[in-house]
C-alpha cells in the first residue's frame, strides 16, 4: 500500500489491481510477476487430478486413431439463410429417410450423404450466429473443422460476412462459400465471387483455391454439391481422426434447463466414446449421463467422436464452449466442479471487494 501510495496509486490491501500495476509493484519489490490466465489456472487444476488433456492427445499412437466425420459450422450475415440452409441440408439426410419428419432442435446434428459412392457422415453445428463460435474459441475450444460461409446472392458481402470470415481465418478453419438465394431474380452469384476476392477468398474457377457452391436453400438446389465440397475440402487438407476407444472428451455446444428433464446439454464428442452411466464434468456442472438423445429425439447408448448428443444428468447448466471430460469416479467430477466453482466465487468476491473498498475510499 505504501509503495503504491508513493507511486500515486491509492489502494487498500484487499483490492484487486490490474496487470500493469502488479508488474510495477513487483519491480519495486524486486520480484518478477507472472500472470496466470484463467485457462492456465484451470489446466493446473485438472493436472492436479492427473488429467493433462494435451499430453494425452500427444501420446495417442497412430493405430488408435480412426477417421471421424468433419464438424462444420454455418456462418454468415443476418438473414442470408443460415437456418434455412441447415434445414435444407437436414432434409437431404439419406439414411434417416425421414425428410420433412419431426426433427428436434438440438443445436447440432449429423447427416449422412453419399460421396463418391461411400456413405459419409457430416456434423453440423447450428450456432445462432458467430457469437457462439467466438465464445467457444474464447474458452479455448476449437470445435469446428470447417466453416460454410453463407452469402445471399442478392445482397452480397455484408459486415457480418466479413466478421464471419475473419473469425474462420483467425481460427485457421478452411472455408467453403455457399452462395445462397440464387433462385431470386436479382441474384448475382458472380458478384459475390468477385467481392470475396478482396478478402483473400478466390474461387477455384477464378484460379483460386476456395470452393464456391451456388445454392438455393428455399428450393433445395445445390445442397448435394455443397456437401460434396465439404467432404472434398475435409479429405484434401484436414486430418480428421480421433481415438474412439477411451473415455470421452468434448465440448458443450448449448445447454438449458428443462422443466421435466432438468439440465439438458448438447455436447459434441471430440475424442473417446461417451456412454450412459459415465461420470462427467463440464465447467462447473457435473453428474452422470442418465440419458442421451440424438437429433431425432431417439435414445442412444453411446456416442463416438464428432457425434453431437443431448445429455441429461448434469446437476446444473454448463456454458456453451465448456469442455467436458469423463472421470473414472463420480467423486472426481464433483471435486473438479467444486474447485472451479470456488475459483469463480473468489474472482467474484475480489471484484466485489474492489468495489466496496473504492466506495470506502471515496466516502473517506
Ligand atoms: P439469422 O438467423 O437471423 O441471422 O438469419 P439466417 O441467416 O438464419 O436466415 P434465414 O434462414 O432465417 O433466412 C432469412 C430469410 O431468407 C427467410 O425469409 C428465408 O425464407 C429466406 N431465404 C433463405 N434462403 C433462401 C433462398 O435460397 N431463396 C430465397 N428466395 N429466400 C431464402
Ligand atoms: Mg438463423
Automatic annotation (TrEMBL):
GTP binds at residues 76-83, 126-130, 180-183. One of its GO terms (molecular function) is translation initiation factor activity. Keywords: Cytoplasm, GTP-binding, Initiation factor, Nucleotide-binding, Protein biosynthesis. One of its GO terms (cellular component) is cytosol. Residues 67-241 form the Tr-type G domain. It is found in: Cytoplasm. One of the essential components for the initiation of protein synthesis. Protects formylmethionyl-tRNA from spontaneous hydrolysis and promotes its binding to the 30S ribosomal subunits. Also involved in the hydrolysis of GTP during the formation of the 70S ribosomal complex. Belongs to the TRAFAC class translation factor GTPase superfamily. Classic translation factor GTPase family. IF-2 subfamily. This is Translation initiation factor IF-2. It comes from Microbacterium ginsengiterrae. The gene is infB. The chain holds residues 49 to 412 of 622 of the full protein.
